[in-house]
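Changelog-adjacent note: as of this version, every example in the card shows the full chain rather than a window. The one below runs 247 residues end to end.
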Amino acid sequence: MNTLKGRLREFKLAGILNSLEERITYSNDNKLSYSQFLELLCEDEVNNRRDNSHKKRHARAKLPTYKTIEEFDFGFQPSIDKKQINDVSTCQYIKEKKNFILVGSPGTGKTHLAIALGVKALLKGHKVLFTTTAEMLRQLHMSKADNSYYKKLNEYLAVDLLILDELGFKKLPNYSTDDFFEVIAKRYETGSLIITTNKFFENWGEIFDDKVIAEAIRDRVIHHGIICKINNGISYRTKSISLDSKN
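Full-length structure tokens:
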């Protein structure tokens, strides 16, 4: 048995290694054939690799918290089309290299939905990365100091779904407009974006210092974009405070 386990470690068959003794007992008790026994071991290996892959992708996604579509209270934001969110949850837009843009006032559930859609994408085997817009641009700017810019840029290009949170909460520094355009332009028709923003598209010129680049960014985002406009409603944060005070 020790020799067999050593070979399984050598071949990196951790799923089989972890379940081997239990499967032997189960097979003996149920008088399984060799082929049935082997099928069980192969299934254990497949499941183990799938679980490990999901764990690694989830860690690399850098989601700030865990949110689901199911726990989102659509009753507090009736302007959100629940059917549209459910359609986007299928992740077909990722296969089609489309974008999903959530536009609305602060506190209306945009980040919750963005994270929840990221969770859905991970469950379907996609590579995901979550970041605030400001943090991405800060990282890109800092990477120029040690000549790791293109390596850092590739981190935002290599994933199937890049989630950019909080675009427009403050005007971007002059140096960051070109970097933001670089990310958007290189992902255009090659990978999907989820963007949350409190600025409607006609006001994106207020975010960037260059209105020409702002228009170029907007056009690329919208061209293959699915838009979810959230009208001013009850803030999720205000809702939580109200519930706490009642308790």
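Structural remarks: The first strand starts at residue 99 and ends at 104.
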